[in-house]
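Notes from hallway chat w/ T.B., transcribed later so I don't forget. T.B. wanted the structure written out for a chain they're using in a teaching module, and asked if we could keep both sequence and C-alpha coordinates in one place. Agreed to drop them here.
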Amino acid sequence: MKIDLTDTTSARINTGLIDARRAIGTPAVGMVLTLVIVTDEGSAYDALKAAHEASREHPSRILAVIKRPGRSPRERAGARLDAEVVVGDEAGTGETVVLRMHGELANHAESVVLPLLLPDAPVVCWWPDQAPEKAGTDPLGRLAQRRITDASSAEDPVGSLVVRAEGYTPGDTDLAWTRLTPWRSMLAAALDQKHSAITSAAVEGEAYNASTELLALWLADRLGVEVERKVSDGPGITAVRLFTGDGDICLDRSDGRLAELSVPGQPDRHVALKRRETAELIAEELRRLDPDDIYRATVKFGVKHLVSTARSGKGTDGGGPTAAARATPPAAKKAASGGKAATSK
Protein backbone atom coordinates (compact mmCIF):
# COMPACT_ATOMS: atom_id res chain seq x y z
CA MET A 1 0.00 0.00 0.00
CA LYS A 2 1.26 3.48 -0.92
CA ILE A 3 0.15 6.86 0.41
CA ASP A 4 1.33 10.15 -1.12
CA LEU A 5 1.49 13.17 1.17
CA THR A 6 2.21 16.65 -0.21
CA ASP A 7 3.25 19.63 1.89
CA THR A 8 2.96 17.52 5.01
CA THR A 9 4.41 17.18 8.52
CA SER A 10 6.01 14.43 10.61
CA ALA A 11 2.79 14.06 12.61
CA ARG A 12 0.73 13.44 9.47
CA ILE A 13 3.32 10.93 8.26
CA ASN A 14 3.06 8.99 11.52
CA THR A 15 -0.73 9.00 11.15
CA GLY A 16 -0.33 7.75 7.58
CA LEU A 17 1.86 4.86 8.76
CA ILE A 18 -0.75 3.80 11.33
CA ASP A 19 -3.58 4.02 8.79
CA ALA A 20 -1.58 2.02 6.22
CA ARG A 21 -0.80 -0.77 8.69
CA ARG A 22 -4.45 -1.01 9.69
CA ALA A 23 -5.55 -1.07 6.06
CA ILE A 24 -3.39 -4.09 5.26
CA GLY A 25 -4.31 -5.84 8.51
CA THR A 26 -0.99 -5.59 10.39
CA PRO A 27 -1.48 -3.00 13.15
CA ALA A 28 1.41 -4.33 15.27
CA VAL A 29 4.93 -3.01 14.75
CA GLY A 30 7.41 -5.89 14.42
CA MET A 31 10.48 -3.95 13.30
CA VAL A 32 13.85 -4.14 15.00
CA LEU A 33 15.53 -0.88 13.90
CA THR A 34 15.25 2.33 11.90
CA LEU A 35 17.42 2.63 8.79
CA VAL A 36 17.92 6.23 7.64
CA ILE A 37 19.18 6.53 4.05
CA VAL A 38 20.58 9.91 3.06
CA THR A 39 20.75 10.07 -0.72
CA ASP A 40 19.78 12.00 -3.83
CA GLU A 41 17.05 11.37 -6.37
CA GLY A 42 19.39 9.58 -8.77
CA SER A 43 20.61 7.02 -6.23
CA ALA A 44 17.39 6.59 -4.25
CA TYR A 45 15.96 3.70 -6.30
CA ASP A 46 19.03 1.46 -5.98
CA ALA A 47 19.50 2.31 -2.31
CA LEU A 48 15.86 1.56 -1.45
CA LYS A 49 15.96 -1.67 -3.42
CA ALA A 50 19.00 -2.84 -1.45
CA ALA A 51 17.43 -1.76 1.85
CA HIS A 52 14.18 -3.61 1.08
CA GLU A 53 16.10 -6.80 0.36
CA ALA A 54 18.12 -6.42 3.55
CA SER A 55 14.90 -5.84 5.53
CA ARG A 56 13.85 -9.42 4.85
CA GLU A 57 16.57 -10.38 7.32
CA HIS A 58 16.22 -7.25 9.49
CA PRO A 59 12.63 -5.89 9.50
CA SER A 60 13.10 -2.12 9.55
CA ARG A 61 11.45 1.22 9.24
CA ILE A 62 13.30 2.74 6.30
CA LEU A 63 13.45 6.53 6.08
CA ALA A 64 14.88 7.79 2.79
CA VAL A 65 15.98 11.42 3.08
CA ILE A 66 16.19 13.24 -0.27
CA LYS A 67 17.25 16.87 0.02
CA ARG A 68 16.20 19.47 -2.55
CA PRO A 69 17.45 22.78 -1.17
CA GLY A 70 16.88 24.67 -4.44
CA ARG A 71 19.25 26.91 -6.36
CA SER A 72 17.62 30.30 -6.22
CA PRO A 73 16.79 32.29 -3.04
CA ARG A 74 13.11 31.90 -3.84
CA GLU A 75 13.39 28.12 -4.06
CA ARG A 76 15.36 27.98 -0.81
CA ALA A 77 12.76 30.05 0.95
CA GLY A 78 9.92 27.73 -0.06
CA ALA A 79 10.36 25.09 2.62
CA ARG A 80 8.13 22.06 2.03
CA LEU A 81 8.00 18.39 2.95
CA ASP A 82 6.59 15.77 0.58
CA ALA A 83 6.41 12.12 1.56
CA GLU A 84 5.58 8.67 0.23
CA VAL A 85 4.47 6.09 2.78
CA VAL A 86 4.85 2.50 1.61
CA VAL A 87 3.70 -0.51 3.64
CA GLY A 88 3.31 -4.10 2.51
CA ASP A 89 5.12 -6.16 -0.11
CA GLU A 90 6.63 -3.11 -1.83
CA ALA A 91 8.43 -2.19 1.42
CA GLY A 92 9.97 -5.60 2.11
CA THR A 93 9.10 -6.87 5.59
CA GLY A 94 8.97 -3.42 7.19
CA GLU A 95 7.73 -0.03 6.11
CA THR A 96 9.24 2.78 4.07
CA VAL A 97 8.89 6.55 4.11
CA VAL A 98 10.49 8.59 1.32
CA LEU A 99 11.01 12.16 2.54
CA ARG A 100 11.62 14.89 -0.03
CA MET A 101 12.71 18.05 1.72
CA HIS A 102 12.51 21.28 -0.26
CA GLY A 103 14.07 24.67 0.41
CA GLU A 104 15.47 25.58 3.81
CA LEU A 105 13.97 22.44 5.35
CA ALA A 106 16.71 20.41 3.62
CA ASN A 107 19.20 21.96 6.05
CA HIS A 108 17.25 20.68 9.06
CA ALA A 109 16.52 17.08 8.07
CA GLU A 110 17.05 15.82 11.62
CA SER A 111 13.99 17.77 12.82
CA VAL A 112 11.82 15.79 10.41
CA VAL A 113 13.48 12.41 10.98
CA LEU A 114 13.54 12.46 14.79
CA PRO A 115 9.73 12.12 15.30
CA LEU A 116 9.65 9.24 12.80
CA LEU A 117 12.22 7.00 14.55
CA LEU A 118 10.93 3.79 16.07
CA PRO A 119 10.76 4.16 19.86
CA ASP A 120 13.38 2.23 21.86
CA ALA A 121 14.97 0.78 18.71
CA PRO A 122 18.49 1.23 17.30
CA VAL A 123 19.07 3.72 14.50
CA VAL A 124 21.43 3.12 11.56
CA CYS A 125 22.31 5.90 9.11
CA TRP A 126 23.57 5.05 5.61
CA TRP A 127 25.04 7.38 2.99
CA PRO A 128 25.17 5.37 -0.30
CA ASP A 129 27.16 8.05 -2.16
CA GLN A 130 28.18 11.47 -0.84
CA ALA A 131 28.83 11.26 2.89
CA PRO A 132 29.75 14.03 5.33
CA GLU A 133 33.42 14.34 6.30
CA LYS A 134 32.60 13.49 9.92
CA ALA A 135 29.58 11.21 9.97
CA GLY A 136 29.53 11.07 13.76
CA THR A 137 29.01 14.84 14.11
CA ASP A 138 26.53 15.18 11.25
CA PRO A 139 23.04 16.12 12.56
CA LEU A 140 21.57 12.89 11.19
CA GLY A 141 24.63 10.86 12.15
CA ARG A 142 24.24 11.94 15.78
CA LEU A 143 20.85 10.19 15.86
CA ALA A 144 22.41 6.83 14.94
CA GLN A 145 24.29 4.14 16.83
CA ARG A 146 25.78 2.91 13.55
CA ARG A 147 26.86 5.01 10.54
CA ILE A 148 27.59 3.42 7.15
CA THR A 149 29.48 5.13 4.34
CA ASP A 150 30.98 3.83 1.08
CA ALA A 151 34.41 5.10 0.06
CA SER A 152 34.13 3.20 -3.23
CA SER A 153 31.44 5.58 -4.46
CA ALA A 154 33.61 8.67 -3.94
CA GLU A 155 35.54 10.38 -6.73
CA ASP A 156 38.76 9.70 -4.81
CA PRO A 157 38.25 6.41 -2.92
CA VAL A 158 41.59 6.42 -1.08
CA GLY A 159 41.27 10.11 -0.26
CA SER A 160 37.86 9.26 1.16
CA LEU A 161 39.46 6.64 3.42
CA VAL A 162 41.74 9.34 4.78
CA VAL A 163 38.69 11.48 5.56
CA ARG A 164 36.95 8.52 7.23
CA ALA A 165 40.00 7.83 9.39
CA GLU A 166 40.52 11.43 10.46
CA GLY A 167 36.84 11.88 11.32
CA TYR A 168 36.28 8.44 12.86
CA THR A 169 33.70 8.14 15.64
CA PRO A 170 32.85 4.80 17.36
CA GLY A 171 30.02 3.28 15.34
CA ASP A 172 31.39 4.34 11.94
CA THR A 173 32.00 1.76 9.25
CA ASP A 174 32.37 1.64 5.47
CA LEU A 175 31.11 -0.78 2.83
CA ALA A 176 34.63 -0.89 1.35
CA TRP A 177 35.54 -2.65 4.62
CA THR A 178 32.45 -4.87 4.62
CA ARG A 179 33.41 -6.20 1.19
CA LEU A 180 36.55 -7.67 2.77
CA THR A 181 34.81 -10.00 5.23
CA PRO A 182 35.06 -13.16 3.04
CA TRP A 183 38.71 -12.35 2.21
CA ARG A 184 39.63 -11.79 5.84
CA SER A 185 37.80 -14.92 6.97
CA MET A 186 39.52 -17.06 4.34
CA LEU A 187 42.97 -15.68 5.11
CA ALA A 188 42.46 -16.07 8.86
CA ALA A 189 41.45 -19.70 8.34
CA ALA A 190 44.57 -20.33 6.26
CA LEU A 191 46.78 -18.71 8.90
CA ASP A 192 45.24 -20.78 11.67
CA GLN A 193 47.04 -23.77 10.18
CA LYS A 194 50.67 -24.55 11.00
CA HIS A 195 53.14 -22.55 8.92
CA SER A 196 56.49 -20.85 9.24
CA ALA A 197 56.82 -17.14 9.98
CA ILE A 198 55.37 -14.75 7.41
CA THR A 199 58.10 -12.48 6.09
CA SER A 200 56.10 -10.19 3.77
CA ALA A 201 52.91 -10.03 1.74
CA ALA A 202 51.42 -8.61 -1.46
CA VAL A 203 47.87 -7.58 -2.32
CA GLU A 204 46.75 -7.29 -5.96
CA GLY A 205 43.69 -5.40 -7.17
CA GLU A 206 42.33 -2.63 -9.32
CA ALA A 207 43.80 0.83 -9.05
CA TYR A 208 41.69 3.32 -7.10
CA ASN A 209 40.00 0.45 -5.23
CA ALA A 210 39.32 1.31 -1.59
CA SER A 211 38.81 -2.30 -0.49
CA THR A 212 42.20 -3.34 -1.87
CA GLU A 213 43.90 -0.55 0.06
CA LEU A 214 42.12 -1.51 3.28
CA LEU A 215 43.06 -5.17 2.89
CA ALA A 216 46.75 -4.27 2.48
CA LEU A 217 46.62 -2.03 5.54
CA TRP A 218 44.80 -4.66 7.61
CA LEU A 219 47.43 -7.31 6.81
CA ALA A 220 50.28 -4.92 7.61
CA ASP A 221 48.68 -3.98 10.91
CA ARG A 222 47.72 -7.49 12.03
CA LEU A 223 50.78 -9.42 10.80
CA GLY A 224 53.46 -6.81 11.45
CA VAL A 225 55.11 -7.29 8.05
CA GLU A 226 55.66 -5.18 4.95
CA VAL A 227 52.78 -5.41 2.48
CA GLU A 228 53.22 -4.51 -1.17
CA ARG A 229 50.26 -3.12 -3.12
CA LYS A 230 50.19 -4.24 -6.75
CA VAL A 231 47.80 -3.04 -9.45
CA SER A 232 45.88 -5.57 -11.57
CA ASP A 233 43.05 -5.41 -14.10
CA GLY A 234 40.50 -6.57 -11.54
CA PRO A 235 37.66 -7.07 -10.98
CA GLY A 236 38.17 -5.68 -7.48
CA ILE A 237 40.73 -7.59 -5.42
CA THR A 238 42.36 -10.34 -7.46
CA ALA A 239 45.00 -11.95 -5.21
CA VAL A 240 46.71 -11.98 -1.82
CA ARG A 241 50.12 -13.59 -1.37
CA LEU A 242 51.73 -14.25 2.00
CA PHE A 243 55.42 -15.17 1.75
CA THR A 244 56.85 -17.71 4.24
CA GLY A 245 60.00 -19.79 4.48
CA ASP A 246 58.02 -22.90 3.48
CA GLY A 247 56.46 -21.32 0.39
CA ASP A 248 53.69 -18.89 -0.52
CA ILE A 249 50.18 -18.87 0.88
CA CYS A 250 48.10 -17.55 -2.02
CA LEU A 251 44.43 -16.68 -2.39
CA ASP A 252 43.88 -15.93 -6.08
CA ARG A 253 40.56 -14.76 -7.57
CA SER A 254 40.79 -13.62 -11.17
CA ASP A 255 37.14 -13.79 -12.24
CA GLY A 256 35.35 -12.16 -9.28
CA ARG A 257 33.55 -15.40 -8.36
CA LEU A 258 35.79 -18.40 -7.65
CA ALA A 259 39.14 -18.29 -5.86
CA GLU A 260 41.99 -20.78 -5.58
CA LEU A 261 43.64 -21.19 -2.19
CA SER A 262 47.20 -22.52 -2.12
CA VAL A 263 48.88 -23.47 1.16
CA PRO A 264 52.36 -25.07 1.32
CA GLY A 265 52.16 -28.80 1.92
CA GLN A 266 48.47 -29.02 1.02
CA PRO A 267 46.59 -29.58 -2.25
CA ASP A 268 45.16 -26.49 -3.91
CA ARG A 269 41.43 -26.04 -3.45
CA HIS A 270 38.74 -23.81 -4.91
CA VAL A 271 36.54 -21.67 -2.69
CA ALA A 272 33.51 -19.48 -3.46
CA LEU A 273 34.50 -15.80 -3.18
CA LYS A 274 32.01 -13.91 -5.30
CA ARG A 275 31.61 -10.15 -5.31
CA ARG A 276 28.54 -9.36 -3.23
CA GLU A 277 25.61 -7.06 -3.96
CA THR A 278 24.89 -3.99 -1.85
CA ALA A 279 21.89 -5.66 -0.19
CA GLU A 280 24.14 -8.40 1.21
CA LEU A 281 26.62 -5.83 2.50
CA ILE A 282 23.90 -3.80 4.25
CA ALA A 283 22.38 -6.95 5.74
CA GLU A 284 25.79 -7.88 7.18
CA GLU A 285 26.28 -4.45 8.72
CA LEU A 286 22.82 -4.54 10.32
CA ARG A 287 23.77 -7.74 12.16
CA ARG A 288 26.05 -5.80 14.47
CA LEU A 289 25.45 -2.45 16.07
CA ASP A 290 28.54 -2.26 18.29
CA PRO A 291 31.69 -0.37 17.23
CA ASP A 292 33.96 -2.27 14.84
CA ASP A 293 37.32 -2.03 16.59
CA ILE A 294 39.25 -3.83 13.84
CA TYR A 295 38.02 -1.35 11.24
CA ARG A 296 39.00 1.52 13.53
CA ALA A 297 42.48 0.08 14.07
CA THR A 298 42.98 -0.46 10.35
CA VAL A 299 42.03 3.03 9.20
CA LYS A 300 43.93 4.64 12.07
CA PHE A 301 46.99 2.54 11.26
CA GLY A 302 46.94 3.48 7.60
CA VAL A 303 45.90 7.12 7.70
CA LYS A 304 49.43 8.57 7.76
CA HIS A 305 50.54 6.42 4.85
CA LEU A 306 47.44 7.16 2.80
CA VAL A 307 47.77 10.90 3.42
CA SER A 308 51.39 10.95 2.27
CA THR A 309 50.58 8.85 -0.78
CA ALA A 310 47.61 10.99 -1.83
CA ARG A 311 49.48 14.27 -1.34
CA SER A 312 52.65 13.15 -3.14
CA GLY A 313 50.63 11.74 -6.07
CA LYS A 314 52.77 8.61 -6.11
CA GLY A 315 51.24 5.40 -7.38
CA THR A 316 52.20 1.78 -7.82
CA ASP A 317 52.87 0.24 -11.22
CA GLY A 318 51.08 3.11 -12.88
CA GLY A 319 48.14 2.84 -10.50
CA GLY A 320 47.87 6.58 -9.94
CA PRO A 321 47.70 8.60 -6.76
CA THR A 322 45.26 6.33 -4.97
CA ALA A 323 47.50 3.26 -4.98
CA ALA A 324 49.03 2.58 -1.56
CA ALA A 325 52.53 1.48 -2.56
CA ARG A 326 53.55 -0.03 0.75
CA ALA A 327 52.10 -0.28 4.22
CA THR A 328 54.91 -0.89 6.70
CA PRO A 329 54.20 -1.01 10.45
CA PRO A 330 56.58 0.28 13.13
CA ALA A 331 59.46 -2.03 14.05
CA ALA A 332 57.91 -2.62 17.47
CA LYS A 333 54.96 -4.36 15.79
CA LYS A 334 57.09 -6.87 13.83
CA ALA A 335 55.79 -10.33 14.58
CA ALA A 336 58.30 -12.85 15.85
CA SER A 337 56.30 -15.54 14.12
CA GLY A 338 53.50 -15.52 11.57
CA GLY A 339 50.67 -14.40 13.85
CA LYS A 340 46.97 -14.70 13.18
CA ALA A 341 45.00 -12.32 11.01
CA ALA A 342 41.94 -12.08 13.22
CA THR A 343 38.65 -11.03 11.73
CA SER A 344 35.96 -8.97 13.42
CA LYS A 345 32.93 -10.32 11.59
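Follow-up for T.B.: Residues 181-277+311-333 form one domain. Might be a good example for the class.
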